Protein: Transcriptional regulator, AraC family
Organism: Cupriavidus basilensis
Amino acid sequence: MRAGSTAGQARYWFDPAMPYVESRCASDSGAAYLPHTHPTLSIGAVDGGHSLFGTETESVRLAPGDVVVIPAGQVHACNPEPDARWSYQMLHLDPAWVGTVLAARGVAVLPAALARVRVTRAPDTYAGLCRLNDVLFSAAPQATKDAALGGFLAALLGAADLRQAVRAPRQPVTPEARLAGLVARLHAHHAEPLPLAELARGAGMSRYQLIRAFRADLGMTPHAYQLDLRINHARQLLRAGGAPAEIAQVLGFSDQSHFQRAFKQRVALTPRSYQRRSG
């Protein structure tokens, strides 16, 4: 396993001086995830075993050496095959930072390059991600890590690599007008109790109409979307040193066990373990 992780465990790297990037390496993992999103551009690679990567529209079997690029906001799940285990790497990057870095390097990136799921089996791309994680998890200075990040991203996104096959046929959707206000409300008030009946009235639909429309536009139900927002917010608060019990309360979970269960279903670690390993 790359980047110094130990067998059967996951390891995180995060530096408060570099809040635009986070990396995870897992070895011999059997953990499964519910469909979820990230507010980041996410780049993953399979080190061992096989994975079933699914979006709202299709499922792809990933093999060792495969690298998948996932745009921000894309609903997805990436799990080992049934009754099997796998090893992988996952890099999360702030999309605005990525754009700034590439622009500073004079690299022109088409919007589609950051808006669709793509898979590449190019050995040099996989090797590049492995080298990058080796640098990130090392004691190298920040300037060295930033340079490694910029070089990897320029090679991955700047060359319009024809070996990268588009695997998700549609871009992450923009909610239709009748749901746009509801989505904005969920983002602004995701820590508050927002009953489905109340949300449906606000959208001028029945509860069942809302669930169908929301799932069609955003790939999950309003409740799942709200939980997703809470968990992504929780990750930020945990990295900043917040206490899990306090975070559970601030984010509107009924109790700490509810928070732990929802967090583990999407991150494959308890909040405390995530905080410890990303520290």
